[in-house]
Each structure stands twice: as C-alpha cells, then as structure tokens.
From TrEMBL:
InterPro entries linked: ARM-like, ARM-type_fold, HEAT_type_2, Importin_beta
Protein name: TOG domain-containing protein
UniProt keyword annotation of Lipid biosynthesis present: no
One GO CC term on file: cytoplasm
Pfam families cross-referenced by the UniProt entry: HEAT_EZ
HEAT repeat positions: 46-77
Repeat keyword on record: yes
Amino acid sequence: MFPGVLAFGGPAILSPDPRRRHAAVAVLGIVSEGCADGLQPRAPEIVPLVVQALRDSSKEVRGAAAFTLGQFADYLQCAVDFPEMHREVLPALFAVLPGEPDKSVQERMMYAMDSWLEQLEEEVGPYIRPLLDIVYLALDGEGARPAVREMLLSATASAAAAAGHAMHPHLADLLPRLERCLTAADDQGLRPRARALEVLGMLVSARGGRQAMAPHVPFAMAAAASGFDLDYSELREYGHGMFAEVAEAMGEEFAQYLPACAAKAMASLDLDDGVVYDSDEEENARGG
C-alpha cells in the first residue's frame, strides 16, 4: 500500500485540483501510524511540501496539512530524528495560525504545534514568546472553545517541562491568566483548569523555578487544594501532580505542605472513580 500512497501523493500534492491536493496531504497523515517505518526516511522531502500546504487556498487542504504534520510528530518522531526540522515546521505554524479564518483548521494547527513542541527540549526556547501570544489570544477572548484552551495549555505545559526557565521572564503576563483558569467551577472550564495546574507545576519544577516561582507557590498550592472540593477526577490527578512537582523543587521546605498533601493522597486512594475491575467479584469485594 505504501508505494501506492507515494506514487499518488507525490504528483497530486501539487495538483491544480484542490480535491486531489487534499487527498494527497491527508493520506500521508492517515498512513503515518501504520507505515511509519517506510515513511520516516522520506520525511525530509515530504515535510516541506506539507508545510507549503498550510498556506493553500483551500481550507480542507490547510486542515489536512496541519493534521499530517501533527501525525508526523507523533508517529514518525520527526522532531527527534530530524533535529533541525522543527525550524521549518514550527515557524510556519506560528505564522499562519493567528490569521487562519477557519476555527476547525486553527484547532488542527494547534494540535500540530502541541505535538512538535512536546518533543523538543532546550530547543523550545525560541518558541516560547510566539506560543504565549497564541495562548493569550485564546484565554483572553470569549470565543475560544474549552477544548482549544485545554490544548493550548497542554502545549504550554509541554514547553514549560522542556525549558520552563525560558518562560519565567513572562510570568507577569502568564500567571494572571492561569489564575483566571483556576477559578473555573463550571463543567466546561474544569479541563482547562486542570491543565493550568499542570503548567504551574512545570514552572515550579523547571530550572530556576524554585526561585522564580517562590512568591507564587502558596497560591499554586491553594489552587490545587481547592480543586479537590469538586467532583472531578482530572483536577485531583493534576493536583497531585502539582504537589509532586513543588515537593521536588522545594525539598525540605515542602514540609509545611506535607500533612495536607498526604491527607488528600489518602483520601484519593479511598476513591474508586476511574478504576476498572477484572471481575464482578473484585468489584463486589470493594463494595461496588
């Protein structure tokens, strides 16, 4: 199948017919999981054509290009095995994303951006500012869907995990926006709220985070703790994760928070939401 895909995709990606261009770009993303071994060595010649398609006149082609770039990051490990390739992909995504008129295409571009950023380490530094500019647009406006805010906060957490110290100079602008996310109590706002906790944890545990985030740790701990009052397992999960990141960064100074964190950990162990039992007997033994 793979040779046939390449035989079709090569000429069709440059076709004057937008339907053929769309099919050519989309099929590359679709087969990237199952045909990764064959496709990956060809990535250096294919990726520039897909990047070019981000500016296609057809929204279907642009959306397929963003989807395919995300798939390439996830399944071909392009950002890892071709260390310079991100310099071609990410600037192109940052350039087209803010002005993309179609919301569904924008979301696919955000997926691609998140997938590539997640695989970078120190190289993520130059992308912090353009990433945050896009994050601020979504968090400050009223039109962004909660799923979009969650995706962008996930990308921010990925960048902070890789090079959080490069994000510390932007704390004055970033933290007030995270604080707004952390006040959400409605169902749609809880997933972005959980991701905001993840960002805080990464900022604290990053190199230099203990010093840069020291004035903000009490708020971060209180924000994580308040999420346990809501019946939402993901908030508990990310709350525990943030406790762990802060504990690692603070060392012995975390002792003041330890009793409360231990109590919440024990309470979570008594819950069974999200637990899958192997048999009815096991569930009955747990009182299910």
